Every structure is written in C-alpha cells, then in structure tokens.
Amino acid sequence: ETDTASESSYSFGRIKKSPSSLTNLSSSSGMASLSSVSGSLMSIYSADFGNVDVKGNIQFAIDYVEQLNELHVFICQCKDLAVADVKRQRSDPYVKTYLLPEKYRLGKRKTSVKKKTFNPVYNEILRYKIEKDLLKNQSLNISVWHNDTFGRNSFLGEVELDLGAWDWNDPSNKQINWFPLKPRNCCIRENIFKNICLSRCFIFTGKKTLSTGEVHIWVKECHNLPLLRGNRLNSFIKCTILPDTSRKSRQKTRTVAKTTNPVFNHTMVYDGFRPEDLKEACIELTVWDHNKLANHFLGGLRIGLGTGKSYGTTVDWMDSTSDETALWEKMMNSPNTWIEDTLPLRML
C-alpha cells in the first residue's frame, strides 16, 4: 500500500481507450489544448486491498503521556484474522497506524510483521510526538495488513477513533480493550467543502459540427479544514477533468494563508465538451495544505455520474458519492444555470 499523501504521490494508471472527443479540452486561462486523454488518476491512497472478507478483532490501548508530549498506541494482539493467502492458507499480518487527516509519512507508524498466524501477538508501542491540543482535530486509524513478498499487501480490517471526542481522563479509556475490525472507511466526515457552483454553456463551433460547450467550476470557499501543522494552514484547490490527467489540464486556485475557512471565489473553465462527454467525464477537486517541502492532501471530491466506467473502460476514479452525482446531474439538466451545493470532503 502507498503510505505517502504528498502532492507528488499521485500515481497514474493507463487505460487503453483514448476518447478523441475530449482531446480538445482547454482552459480559458490561455493553457494549451489537451492532447492526452489516456491516463487515469488513481486514488491518492491507492492500494491492493485484495478481496479478503474482513473478520477478527484487535486488542490495543491508547494514552497521552503529558511528561513526554507523546501519544502512545499500545498494540497488543489480534485474533481470528482472515486468510489473506488462500492458496497457502496463511496470513503474515502487521498493524499500521495513522493520525488523520495527516495521512503522510510523518503520521504513519507500523509494527513488526508476524509470519504464518491469524492470531499475532505484538506488544509494541507506537509513539507520536504531538501537542495534546492538536489531537482534538485528529482521528486515529489503526489498520491490519497482510505483508506480501511481492508488495501486494492485502487489507485485513481497521478501527478508527475520533480523538476530538476521546475522554483522556476516563481510566477505562487507558485500559487494553478488544475492538472488532471493520471494512475500509475512507471518508473524512467532519471537513466541509463549502459552496461549489457549476455551470455549462453550449456554443456552436462550426457550420456542420455538433454543438459543444464549456464547464465552469466556481469554487467559493471551504469550511472547517483540518490543521496539520500547529495553527497554520495555507490551502489551495486543484482541479482536473478526468480522464485527462496531463499537467496542461490541471488548474488551481491561489493559496489562501492562515485560515481553516479560506475564501477563493475562483472560476475555472474547460471547453470542448459535447453533451455525451459529460456522461463520461468527472471533475476532480482536491484541497491541499501548501508547504515549502511538500503539499499535503486534505481531501477531495469527484463530481460525475459515478458509473465506474468511462467510454466503456472500467476506471477507479468514476466513484462519485450520491451527493456528488446529484450535483453533476443537476448541472447536466440545467444548462446556462449556476448549480450550487455544499459537499463533504473525502479521502478519494
């Protein structure tokens, strides 16, 4: 599984079909027209989760050590884990923890790997050097993985704790407890991406050609973005029209400094769309915290029909939620009209 979430960690897959109808997309800001539509932007946290049915439990405890300014996660053991390698009837499990939404290398910790067991015993402490006040904006994600020799690690289950609601003074919360492992949960429910306005307008491009139009994305503002670095947050938004992932297709807002509620009021325009293209394309908006060393991912949206396919090819990015799909359908059914909505960020 990929453990980084810096801006440079995007991984690009390939699809064989290259829908020519989207090769002339361009932005109104003077960017060159797009020439490649064969790439597909994969999930930022792409991994081979495998087809393992999640089962079993994990035993752990957490505590904040005031003297050290450290969060301690004591991973004790797991029991009754699923079989990851069916052919050899074995699992080689390890446990990984993340502080969310800080899902990059600085927020990741791992235990050792235990070979050939469905009931691994770890008794290991994973430590985070972090101020206690910052934990109110964090969730702790604890996941179990099968370690594969060829790097195709399989997901075996997870537990997620909201540290903002955690009672650190309750003695029972410091005790070692069993928790049932759950299937993958990739949503950040508390972070709201505020007021996305979309419109499309059709114009004629020639005497004998079909009508084409423009998609306008008006990004107004964000609310309640998570703090990753103390009380500093310098955010910006990037936009890509999938399936085109070439750099020339990407547009972004300016960076708004020192606020968790940035106001952008920025419009992005893409032209060259036919009505049928709207059923195959997807607008991906991602929010980033700007840093000199690396830009860190905060969450995103994919606004499309969510059919799982684009021009007949199965793609991972056509995975819009019901709310995202509803917004796209409203836009398709209301040309020349601004369609406004408020949507939650997710981890894509």
UniProtKB/TrEMBL annotation:
Biased composition (Polar residues): 1-11
Compartments it resides in: Cell membrane
InterPro entries, per the entry: C2_dom, C2_domain_sf, Synaptotagmin, SYTL1-5_C2B
Main location: membrane
GO biological process: exocytosis
SMART domains found in the cross-reference section: C2 (SM00239)
CDD domains, alphabetized: C2A_SLP-1_2 (cd08393), C2B_SLP_1-2-3-4 (cd04020)
Region spans: Disordered: 1-29
One Gene Ontology cellular component: plasma membrane
Comp. bias intervals (Low complexity): 18-29
Listed transmembrane segments: none
Keywords: Cell membrane, Exocytosis, Membrane, Repeat
Residue span, C2 domain: 54-179, 196-318
Alphabetized PROSITE patterns for the sequence: C2
A GO term for molecular function: neurexin family protein binding
Protein name per the record: Synaptotagmin-like protein 2
Source species: Vireo altiloquus
Gene: Sytl2_0
